[in-house]
């Protein structure tokens, strides 16, 4: 356990040291987030490339651990590198959505080649046959899960410190779940990731001096989705769907509600709007800090539910997930979350 904490400290220090250097580099290369529409909350250009600090500190600390890299860790590093390259190109040149998707697809395929994919899921309908082998469906399910979470983290990156803080809470949640299940590799990966985010967050919290950019937001979503396949499990074999969905609740539900909202209002699913949860909280008169802290609290509550889901049987965990989703949908409908917002 002490060694795990050491990993967190090392990655946090590295991230804290590298972030100011990344900021200077972003300014020099003119990789800036310039506010161009009413969806953006900041009023002046902010340097990007904060994601590079998270990426470097995560990779370096991972190499420092004893015992060498496992096959899945190599796949994770290669996939993360592809995501970061695509994100950097997007931060500089603003790629089309389908171009981003190509990088995400390539990164996820690399993961699967190196053995990180959903093969078994817990069976909510039978206590006798606890696991279901999904066979060839493991490929599309893994693609949907990893690419979906990658984009979900990117979509909520709309306020200072929001995506980074929620990713930190999710990392800690999955770390706890991995420790409870004796999943040491997932525990190491999440504690290193948590440290990398923690070192960056002080620079990113309101008022932010640097953003993580698409490279960083997509990286965090990609890593969390990938690690959750390894760590958010009922055993060494099966993926418990309810657990990571709750652990990564805020970005997943916000993205799901955005898709429903745009569909109801006849807008293209990929068309951005000002209807995300953080926009709604700001419209209620909250400050950036207040809105972000509220979303931190919600994320922590959902993370707690995921730990509970981990400790109960499959049937009850799925029931818990359904109850939480129904409550959130009712609340979203009540506050007009699905109404059209430009």
TrEMBL record:
Family matches, as InterPro entries: Glycosyl_transferase_4, Integrin_alpha_C_CS, PNAcMuramoyl-5peptid_Trfase_CS
Keyword Magnesium: no
Keywords: Cell membrane, Membrane, Transferase, Transmembrane, Transmembrane helix
EC number: 2.7.8.-
Topology with respect to the bilayer: Multi-pass membrane protein
EC main group: transferase
TM stretches of this protein: 6-26, 46-64, 70-89, 101-122, 128-149, 161-180, 186-203, 210-229, 235-260, 291-312, 318-337
An example Gene Ontology molecular-function term: transferase activity
Keyword Cell membrane: yes
Subcellular location: Cell membrane
One Pfam family cited in the UniProt record for this chain: Glycos_transf_4
Protein name: MraY family glycosyltransferase
């Amino acid at each position: 356990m002490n060694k795990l904490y050491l990993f967190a400290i090392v990655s946090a220090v590295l991230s804290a040291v590298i972030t100011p250097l990344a900021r200077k580099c972003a300014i020099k290369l003119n990789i800036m987030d310039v506010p161009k529409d009413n969806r953006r909350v900041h009023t002046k250009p902010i340097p990007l490339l904060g994601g590079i600090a998270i990426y470097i500190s995560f990779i370096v600390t991972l190499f420092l651990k004893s015992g060498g890299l496992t096959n899945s860790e190599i796949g994770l590093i290669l996939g993360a590198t592809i995501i970061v390259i695509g994100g950097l190109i997007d931060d500089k040149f603003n790629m089309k959505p389908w171009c981003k998707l190509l990088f995400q697809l390539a990164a996820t395929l690399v993961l699967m080649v190196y053995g990180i994919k959903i093969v078994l899921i817990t069976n909510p309908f039978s206590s006798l046959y606890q696991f279901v082998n999904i066979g060839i469906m493991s490929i599309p399910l893994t693609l949907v899960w990893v690419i979906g979470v990658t984009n979900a983290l990117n979509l909520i990156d709309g306020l200072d410190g929001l995506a980074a803080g929620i990713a930190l809470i999710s990392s800690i949640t999955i770390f706890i779940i991995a420790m409870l299940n004796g999943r040491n590799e997932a525990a190491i990966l999440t504690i290193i990731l948590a440290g990398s985010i923690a070192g960056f967050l002080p620079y990113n919290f309101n008022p932010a001096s640097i953003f993580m950019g698409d490279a960083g937001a997509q990286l965090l979503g990609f890593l969390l989705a990938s690690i959750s396949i390894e760590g958010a499990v009922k055993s060494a074999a099966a993926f418990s769907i309810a657990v990571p969905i709750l652990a990564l609740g805020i970005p997943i539900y916000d993205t799901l509600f955005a898709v429903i909202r745009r569909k109801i209002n006849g807008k293209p699913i990929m068309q951005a709007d000002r209807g995300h949860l953080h926009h709604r909280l700001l419209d209620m008169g909250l400050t950036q800090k207040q809105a972000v802290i509220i979303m931190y609290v919600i994320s922590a509550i959902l993370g707690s539910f995921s730990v509970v889901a981990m400790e109960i049987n499959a049937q009850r965990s799925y029931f818990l997930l359904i109850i939480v989703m129904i409550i959130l949908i009712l609340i979203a409908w009540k506050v007009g979350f699905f109404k059209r917002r430009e």
